[in-house]
Design goal:
Number of helices: 0
Order of helices and strands: EEEEEEEEEE
Shape: elongated
Largest sheet: 10 strands, antiparallel
Distance between the termini: 27 Å
Structural class: mainly beta
Radius of gyration: 14 Å
Helix content: under 10%
Length: 110
C-alpha cells in the first residue's frame, strides 16, 4: 500500500472504493468518489491489484456506484480503451478495468 493506491474498504458489509491520501501507523487517510475524507484501519482495507487479464464469462467484483458489487459477469472486454462491460441483476454496466477485481471476498451482510 502506498499513497495514491486504490483500495476497497470494508464498511458495514460492503466494499467501498477509496484512494489512499496518507498513511500513519495502522491508519489510512482516504478519499472516495464523492471527495469525502475518511480514516480507516489498514486491516479493513484491501489493495486493488492492477490486473488486465479478464475474459468474457469471468465472475468479478465491479465498482458500481461507490461500492464493489460481487457476482458481476464479464460480457465484453475492450483492452484498447481499458473498459469492461459487466452484467449484474439483468443490468449492464461499463466500468474501467481498474475498477474490476477478482481479489475481494464476500462480506457478511450486516
Amino acid at each position: 500500500m502506498d499513497v495514491g493506491s486504490s483500495v476497497a474498504v470494508e464498511d458495514n458489509g460492503l466494499w467501498k472504493s477509496a484512494i489512499i491520501l496518507n498513511m500513519q501507523g495502522d491508519k489510512l487517510l482516504l478519499t472516495d468518489a464523492g471527495n469525502h475524507i475518511t480514516v480507516a484501519e489498514k486491516s479493513k482495507c484491501k489493495l486493488l491489484p492492477i490486473e488486465l487479464n479478464y475474459n468474457e464469462g469471468d465472475s468479478v467484483f465491479a465498482k458500481i456506484g461507490h461500492t464493489f458489487q460481487p457476482d458481476c459477469k464479464v460480457v465484453k472486454v475492450d483492452r484498447r480503451v481499458g473498459r469492461i462491460r459487466v452484467e449484474k441483476n439483468a443490468q449492464t454496466y461499463v466500468v474501467s478495468m481498474l475498477d474490476v477485481t477478482k481479489k475481494l471476498d464476500e462480506l457478511p451482510k450486516k
